[in-house]
Hints:
Oligomer: single chain
Shape: globular
CATH class of the largest domain: Alpha Beta
Largest sheet: 6 strands, mixed
CATH superfamily of the largest domain: 2-enoyl-CoA Hydratase, Chain A, domain 1
Radius of gyration: 19 Å
Number of helices: 9
Structural class: alpha/beta
Amino acid sequence: MAGTVLYERTGRIATITYNRPHAMNAVDRELRADLNAAWRTFRDDADAWVGIVTGAGRAFCAGADLNDPTGATSTGNADPTFWEMPSLSSLEAGLEIDKPTIAAVNGHCLGFGLTLATACDFVVASDRATFGFPEVRLGVPTVQGAVRLPHRIGWQHAMELLLTGERIDTARALEIGLVWKVVPHDDLMSEATRLAERLLAGAPLAVRATKEIARRGTELPLLDAIRFGETMRRVVAQTEDAGAFGRRRADDGPPTWTGR
């Protein structure tokens, strides 16, 4: 895949790259379509077990392209209906991916870019990164970010970002839990890759089931969440990988996961 978004897979790790560096990777109609396609490719690729998303150039993503203001939420139709906006094919707006995802934030991470970062399981940031939701200063509300952020960092920290429209640096982002780790800029991708490799140590279907249990568990009453988790455990117990640990333990070697 080439164009405004790059998709590359090395072994079990897929890397998705915003690729409009001349526009600070702002989201226009073309990038929106390419980004959605990249996430669907990752979701459906049985050989891709962990995903990393980053940006080309000096920005991760500067948010919506103000020269194409409806492009960021476009479904691809020339005249989308109210019910088609925003497109639920986007990760920011609810596309479900149960594989682990890592945002490697290399620079400015604003608006839609920050919403996507909060949709990822981990955020690893360059020490040059900045974060913010500038929408209110442009006269429009933040939508997906306003839905996601309070669950991620708590009400008051979320309101500070959402209602002031101010940018914060990596020190503040780390303090409020928006970022998992801050690293020197030149070490960003190697750090994200090391994390991805750590995630590959687990059986991929067990990892995916655990992530889904965690996500659903926040939305369900306690007993329903536990019942759902037990159902998922029994499903995964029937897979080929579930028996691999016991077979390999007898040989004192690590299991070889197949994802089946």
